[in-house]
Amino acid sequence: MPVTIHQDEVLTGEAVALDVQPVGFFMRALGAIIDMLVSIALFLLIIWGISLLDAAGALPPELFPILTTTVLVLILVVLPTAVETVSRGRSLGRLAVGARIVRADGGASGFRQAFIRALVGVVEIWFTLGALAALTGAFTPRSQRLGDLIAGTYSERTRTPALPPATLVLPPELAGWATIADVTRLPDRVARRVSQFTQQAARMQPAARARIAASLAAEISPHVAPIPAVAPEVLLLGVASVRRDRELRALELENDRVAALMVGGDAPRGFPTR
């Protein structure tokens, strides 16, 4: 049976689809601009120091252009490769926007990916002032620049939202049903209405509350299996609670995976997405 992988999912080596949050185009651009400014400032600082030595006669005149070229290579290729390799895909710009470079399968990037990205970046970022990188990133699903496409990487968001507090309580009579319930086919728009009802039910008039509960229960019945023999409002509470608990577990696993990337090494096995 074919499996559909959406643009915000990656497929691990175990054929598990991971729900990921790639960094958007503008945030990537902001991070790149910060890194470029830092690199330019560092280059000018080193060149200024070399110029002082040259003016003082401490350097042979023919050595100045050689040192300038060497510093340029260090700033454009060696330093970005070293920083990205040691920090597992981080840089000052990515720290500022909450991003990290990872492999296409969700694992941490290494020296090979960092070197390819830095080498290609000389052309697409520095020689074209970022125009080529911006053009490529604007037309790729995960805002990948040319270096990412060649290296097989993308920029992943590391600042995940805080987990919401648990406010729903699973009705006791549905405890057994919750372990086998299939609620994944519930359309998002219907799930939002169910969630809104469970939050506002206590403030509704009894007649309207019962009528809306019955209507929503009838609407979700084709998408939930099995259907327990309970009152409509109890069914809605059960469905909302099961979906909430499973989404919380998914977010916790995602947070653990991001934390593992921050420590270093390959990402652990992910969780199946809904």
Quote the average pLDDT.
83
Structural class: mainly alpha
Total beta-strand segments? 4
Return Rg in Å.
26 Å
Largest sheet: 2 strands, antiparallel
The DSSP helix count reads 10
Task: Give the CA-CA distance, first to last residue.
Answer: 17 Å
- Low-pLDDT regions: 1-19, 267-274
> Main sheet: which strands, in order across?
1-2
Envelope shape:
rod-shaped
Percent of residues in β-strands: 5-15%
How many distinct domains?
Answer: 2
Q: Specify the helix fraction band.
A: 55-70%
| SSE pattern, N- to C-terminal | EEHHHEHHHEHHHH
Description:
By secondary structure, this protein is mainly α. The chain has two domains: 22-157, no CATH class; 172-262, no CATH class. 57% of the residues lie in helices and 6% in strands. It is built from ten helices and four strands, in the order E-E-H-H-H-E-H-H-H-E-H-H-H-H. Strands 1-2 form a two-stranded antiparallel sheet. The chain has a two-stranded antiparallel ribbon with strand order 3-4. Helix 8 crosses helix 10 (232-263) and helix 9 packs across helix 10. It is rod-shaped. 25% of the residues are buried. Mean pLDDT is 83; it is low at 1-19 and 267-274.
